[in-house]
Amino acid sequence: MVQYATAHNLTALNADLDTIKSSLDDTSADMNVFWLIFGGALVFFMQAGFGMLEAGCVRSSSVVNIVFKNLCDACIGAVMFYMFGWALAYGDDLDSKSRNGFLGNAAFFLVTDANGGYQDGLAEYGGFEPRAFASWFFQFAFCATAATIVSGAIAERTQLNAYFAYSAWICGFVYPVVVHWTWSSAGWASPWVSYDQPMPRLGKGLMDFAGSGVVHMVGGFAALAGAMLVGPRRGRKTASQQTPPFRFAKDSDPTHFIGHNKVHQVLGMFILWTGWFGFNCVSTLEMTPGSAPVASRTAVTTMLGACGGGFATLMIDLILQKVRHIEPKVDPTWVRWAEENGQDTTDPPKEAILGATLNFEIECVVNGILAGLVSITAGCSLVEPWAALVIGMLGGAVYTGASGLMVKVKIDDPLDAFAVHGACGFWGLVATGLWATAKNVAEVYPANNFVNATHPGDMPGDEYYGAFYGGDGKQFGIQLLVGLVIAAWAFSMAFLCFFLLKLTGNLRVADDQEGYAGLDSHEHGASAYTGMPAVKEAAGNVRSPTAGEPKRVETN
Q1: Could you give the CA distance from residue 429 to residue 148 in angstroms, rounded to a whole number?
Q2: N vs C: which end of the chain shows fewer Cβ within 10 Å?
Q3: Taking each helix axis from N to C terminus, what angle separates 262-281 and 362-377, rounded to the nearest 10 degrees?
């Protein structure tokens, strides 16, 4: 009887333990769902940051237009990612013969079985169980971010229907294909391809933890293609050249194109900075004892990368001001103002002497912080905090160089979208191949044997980590190669879209729509502000608050 009672108690105890384990598993799964929804909400809120930043960086006559495009990104992006994007990014059949490294081929409209339902047990392959909807929401927020980057580069002169077409194209096809390459369980450059799957892979795959290449390079290089094809804004082309292709005028005054609201720029940047912690930290995709240390380290590196970028960009800008203004000269803007107001131009005040004082430019710090954030996004979980600071500072230098190059080659990018996202995104991939430590790589990618964290060098293939930490350069080469492929794909696909729109006359607004009233009046019949004073644009249009149509005036 005693033995029977003991056996019965052990059976009951095992049943209780199984129940507790099942309950804990469910709790852990629910925590992961909350983690993804929380992170997705932070990333989605970055749309507000983009909206404020872009509104502050354009002229007051295009504010409604630019924020309207942000609204459309969210709406169009969600629908396209629901219908096609997720399927092309993560959708894969269980049949390994139909899986491929280029794009997914299942779960269109999030449907995974023949009856149009959501079949359990397929989440690993891009299908859906009930909790997997949180993954869709989190990944959609990333997709919308990639699309929004372009709106700033083509601001103030692009037709709305052209932007609708582009947004659908990037969210429904261009971006999801890159995601499949690098983040799916079947992509040719993905570190998540299991060894028991007969899928070809480039080395151990690309290390891009949160999307320097996957998200920001796609948006940045698409922005470059758009800015090239749509041409500069009116006033940055020669006065006699009223038909495409548009070019910068040699005497174009950039002061006419400075963003109208510094406060919006800063507030937008802070919203983006806050959302970036969801962007990077929640890319662990789960909150478990193993992923919590990764998320906490990522928060620190994200912060330091941003600070490094902002600090370095400010220092570089001050140095360049000193170099460029060795010979002080009178500000031409002040000269025009003085002439128009009957003032003596022979004795300018000190404030009008360029080179007399150094200006702490707020725009360069805003973009420098964003450049640092983009630069650290790929390696945020893989590098040490001190390296994150260095990567962010070098990212600030990369941004400054790329921004200057865009001006040099006369490509008009009002928000420096390519310099911040395209150039610094590429730098982020390269930097990860240099500074990713063996320990961190093994912690983030434990299943794919990048490195033996205990004894580096003891295992075949464990050289896949940062070259500065003993890696033999293979991972650096992979980062470089895949970065070039992503750049070529994003640029060529966006170029194709914008070229077709231009060919059919659906890309750029009519030249007379870029005057004082701007796109807000012509596209929306509204203005972001009321009671604005008379303004004279570079194009030479002047209008008072009570006037009807703007009248043409001559400008120097």
Answers
A1: 21
A2: N
A3: 10
User: What is the Cα–Cα distance from 33 to 291, expressed in whole angstroms?
Assistant: 14
The Cα 415–Cα 39 span in angstroms is 26
Decide: 139 and 52 in contact? Cβ < 8 Å.
Answer: no
CB 153 within 8 A of CB 220: no
Enter the DSSP assignment of 158.
B
Structure tokens at 6: 């003991």
d(CA 309, CA 300): 14
Cβ 251 vs Cβ 273: under 8 Å:
no
Provide Rg for the chain, Cα atoms. 26
Q: Which amino acid is at 356?
A: A
In tens, the pLDDT along 56-104 reads: 999 888 999 999 999 998 999 999 999 999 999 988 754 556 678 898 8
SS3 assignment, position 478: helix
Could you tell me which residues come within 8 angstroms of residue 342 by beta carbon, excluding any fewer than 6 positions away? Answer: none
* CA–CA dist 461, 403 (Å, integer): 39
Decide if pLDDT at 541 tops 70. Answer: no
**Per-residue tokens: 274:** 């806050």
Give Cα separations from 217 to 15, 149, 229 (angstroms).
Answer: 52, 10, 18
The mean per-residue pLDDT over the stretch 458-473 comes to 75
Whether cis (ω within 30° of 0) applies to the bond prior to 328 is no
Cβ burial of 83 (10 Å; 0-12, 13-18, 19+) is middle
Lookup result for tokens 């607004």 = 509
Question: Could you give the CA distance from residue 414 to residue 450 in angstroms, rounded to a whole number?
Answer: 41
Query: 443-457: b or e for each residue (b if 16 or more CB lie within 10 Å)?
Result: bbbeebebbebeebe
CA distance 58 to 384: 37
Distances (CA, A) of 288 to 32, 284, 291, 490: 8, 9, 5, 35
pLDDT digits (tens, 9 = 90+) for 389-445: 999 999 999 999 999 999 999 999 999 999 999 999 999 999 999 999 999 998 998
Token duo for residue 14: 């095992």
Cα gap 329→352, rounded to integer Å: 8
Matching residue, tokens 């107001």:
341
Q: Are the C-beta atoms of residues 242 and 515 closer than 8 Å to each other?
A: no
- Per DSSP, the residues of 430-445 read HHHHHH--HHHHHHHS
Per the listing, tokens 């999307």 go with 211
Q: How far apart are CA 222 and CA 458, in angstroms?
A: 42
Q: Is the pTM of the predicted complex or chain greater than 0.90?
A: no
Q: Which residues contact 256 (CB under 8 A, 6 or more apart)?
A: 235, 537, 538
Residues 6+ apart with CB under 8 A from 90: 104, 107, 126, 135, 139, 179, 180, 183, 184
